[in-house]
Specification:
This protein has twelve helices and 14 strands. By secondary structure, it is an alpha/beta fold. It has two domains: about 80 residues, Copper amine oxidase-like, N-terminal domain (Copper Amine Oxidase, Chain A, domain 1, 2-Layer Sandwich); about 230 residues, 3-Layer(aba) Sandwich (Aminopeptidase). The strands form three sheets. Strands 10-9-11-14-12-13 form a six-stranded mixed β-sheet. Helix 6 runs parallel beside helix 8 and helix 9 packs across helix 12. The chain is elongated. The N terminus is likely disordered.
Amino acid sequence: MLRNWITIWSVILFLVMHMGGCTSVGTKTEKAARERLFLKDLCGKNNITWEWDSVSQVVTLSLKGVRAKALVGSDVVLIGEEKVLLSAPLKTVKSSIVVSGDFQEKVIDKILNQSLEKADYFVKRVETILIDAGHGGKDPGTIGVRGGRQEKEVVLDIAKRLRNVLEAHGFKVNMTRDKDEFISLKERTEIACRSKVDLFISVHANSNPVRSVNGLEVYSLKDLNYVEKEDAERRENHQILFQKMAMKRNARDVEGILEDMLYTNKQSESRILAEYVAKETTKMIGSRNRGIKESHFFVLRNTLIPAVLVEVGFMSNPREERLLRKSLYRQKIANGLARSIMAYANRKN
């Protein structure tokens, strides 16, 4: 009886995929059709659960409520009710499922994006986030090695996409800039102190004289010594913050205690956030994780809340520069950064 139901399901799935109107085929690239990838490797890399019923030949992928189904021998995948056409059908090779080269973009990436939209996040530690798109206006940042694309354009686009995703999940978002304008480093840190935000994330693109260098890296603040903690800009920003608090003005002993508490919290939380950003974002975009680094960057040194600076890729690397010119890739970066922030905000300890 079970085998009969399995057979019936296989027939139904086949009919749904191949009947009921013509699917728009589009242009199939020979490269994608020739390239073969092991499904178990793709799913393992992206933490997607999958199973293959060897009787019905139905392959099922699932992630956080998002499900996709396909038949071995078919070039159609159903993601929910959406029908996706691959450049080549699923096949079996030595008891393993292999898929075409466009399976990552057409199926895996869609599952990841839809799972992000379905995720049931509750804002706990974090309510308001300040996104800092690096450079701007007269400061173009680094320039793409081939396409001539400017860093300020790339990171502003990513920052806006990140804002949209976070707002869709209930976070309040402020930006140091939302258009092509020059904002000084001093102004950026003052905005962070005036805006009553919980997190600061600065988005940049990297560069290196060696074109083969690639990947994503995240910076948090390197520990400050006593003199660095007493820097004039930090003192000014502390005063901007304290003016918003119900406390006696110029109570230096109280201010000193608060400054130490803010610094201790910033250091521990920034490192945790940096770990989430590096791990989740590189997983989302399939980039090399260059790890967590520490620096005295101005925007890290003079903000008083948990803060990280992320270099999303190298514009000096021909491959990464080409990817950064693509809208889909920039959206994946934004999704990865958003997933990182939400995972950080909702962690249990």
